[in-house]
Specification:
By secondary structure, the protein is mainly beta. The chain has one domain. The protein has one helix at 12-32, and strands spanning 54-66, 69-87, 93-102, 110-119, 124-129, 132-138, 146-148, 159-171, 174-188, 192-201, 205-216, 229-244. The chain has a twelve-stranded antiparallel beta sheet, with no helix packed on it. The longest helix has 21 residues, at 12-32.
Length: 245
Amino acid sequence: MPTEKRHFPLGRGARRAGWVFGSIAAAFLSCSRPCTDCAPTPTGAEFFPLKIGTFVEYEVQEQEFALGRPPVERSYQLKELMAEKYQNVAGQAAYRIVRFYRQSAAQSWQPDSTITLRITANGQAIRNENGRDFLKMTLPVYEKATWNGNAYNALGQDQYEASRVGKPFKVSGQTFERTATVVQQNDSTLVGQDKRLEIYAADVGLIYRENNNVQFCSSLPACVGKAQIDFGKRQYVRFKKMSLE
């Protein structure tokens, strides 16, 4: 007499085990296949592009204030050229940036100064300006990250903070989709203002800098609290264009 074959439905535990195994297998297969359309993981290094021969031009506006005379206003242009890669005295890879100056587009560029930039192995973007090292950003950069911008010079503690990381920013009629703002100082009182910030765009670098350091009138009752500037300086640096030399 033939034996009857019976089919029993899988229990809940067996179904769960099969689901788990299937998920693990799918995950393994997805990891083993190369991703052709995945976005690269941002590290922050994209805010400091290091391509030799690339230059960025800036428009600069300044106001200088002093007691007893009207403010002096200046406008000029700067160009920063990523000139070469070299090895510094500590054996680290560094980059030499040559800065040029002119008063207007009608003039030719004149050499102004030399700047160096290095990205350390532990993710610190250090820029040397006027013989001093400034820690511009710690990488990877994230919202509300803080660090001492004067960690490598003798100017004293100066806490920087990252904000609006990954957000767009518009300057000079151009919108940059992914930027990071570094607030170096934002202090305003009845007697003065110290506001310093820099904004970096991915694959471009610095696109905006604001430096306001002014003292308000506080010696006369009639001017207290009215933001009447006695002395100081305001400077605005705005991205103009980027290209190859």
